[in-house]
Specification:
With about 290 residues, this protein is of the alpha+beta class. It has two domains: about 5-120, Elongation Factor Tu (Ef-tu), domain 3 (Beta Barrel); about 125-285, Threonyl-trna Synthetase, Chain A, domain 2 (Threonyl-tRNA Synthetase, Chain A, domain 2, 2-Layer Sandwich), CATH 3.30.980. It contains five helices and 17 strands. Helix 1 (about 125-145) packs across helix 5 (about 205-220).
Length: about 290
């Protein structure tokens, strides 16, 4: 029976050693390699906000590129699935959860079950994605604060105790290196929940300025940032913690993050309401020099 993949990315690891437990060929001409332990962060098939890491697998003096890390799973009956082909939600019972490393073309002869490999993540890309993910969370918290006065009913609280616009309205989040794009649905259901969409639209520029001022203040404070895990496997819960001046924000999150907000020179957002039913928030981060 398979055992879950042990992961080390939450602590910031970008290198590690492991034993290959599975090599599978796909119909698209690629191969996925499962290793018992990995520093690679995989894209989540249920909520694919942060892309999977890229990097290399190596043995002795031979190195091959990893084009993407993905979630994989094998059922108790032996069904193996990768990424979007996984038929159940992450962590579902009856499945063992794994990290797959995709490589292009056929697997080299040395890459077989039982092989020992060195795993190395593309450090610069990981750092950019970590900045993008932390910036995304901070921007959502600043957005919640900037629109807190527009609620006529209680929508629940976010990680800082403010009305949870993010939780109520976010329909997609896409993180990239040093930034993110989030989409929020401003339809009838949000209005019924008590949000004043008309005033929001009329004061959009002011809301954007409030968000950017808050982000600048948080960056200046240089708060610490970390990921806390409940266990070592890919499906153990992980939470992002950030010690902001207003209090420690704690958000369930499977991604990677910076260690401190001092790693940023700036974070800013732009708000687009071209479609009155859809708010698009684009977050841009700049690394500290």
């Amino acid at each position: 029976m398979s055992t879950p993949t042990i992961v080390s990315f939450a602590g910031g690891a970008i290198t590690g050693d492991g034993t290959v437990t599975r090599v599978e060929s796909g119909t698209d001409g690629t191969v996925v390699v499962v290793v018992d332990a990995t520093p690679f962060h995989p894209v989540d098939h249920t909520w694919p906000d942060q892309p999977g890491d890229t990097g290399t697998l190596s043995s002795d003096d031979v190195t091959i590129p990893v084009t993407e890390a993905l979630m994989a799973a094998v059922s108790d009956e032996g069904e193996f699935a990768v990424g979007g082909d996984i038929p159940v939600k992450r962590g579902a019972e009856g499945w063992t959860w794994l990290v797959a490393h995709r490589i292009d073309g056929a697997a080299p002869a040395w890459l077989t079950d039982g092989s020992r490999v060195r795993l190395t993540v593309d450090a610069a890309r990981r750092a950019g994605l970590s900045r993008g993910h932390t910036a995304c969370h901070l921007a959502s918290l600043a957005l919640d604060l900037a629109v807190a006065d527009l609620w006529r009913k209680d929508p629940g609280e976010d990680a800082l105790g403010n009305p949870d616009f993010e939780g109520r309205a976010n329909q997609s989040s896409r993180i990239h290196e040093d930034g993110a794009v989030d989409e929020y649905r401003l339809g009838k259901s949000l209005r019924r929940a008590g949000f004043d969409t008309e005033t929001f639209a009329a004061t959009l520029a002011d809301r954007e300025q409030r968000i950017n001022a808050q982000l600048a203040a948080w960056i200046a404070a240089g708060a610490t940032s970390r990921v806390e895990t409940e266990g070592p496997t890919i499906v153990d819960r992980r939470r992002w913690h950030c010690a902001l001046p207003e209090g420690e924000a704690v958000i369930l999150c499977g991604g990677t993050h910076v260690r401190a907000l001092s790693e940023f020179s700036s974070i800013s957002v732009s708000l687009d309401l071209t479609d009155p039913q859809l708010l698009v928030m684009t977050t841009t981060a700049t690394a500290a020099g």
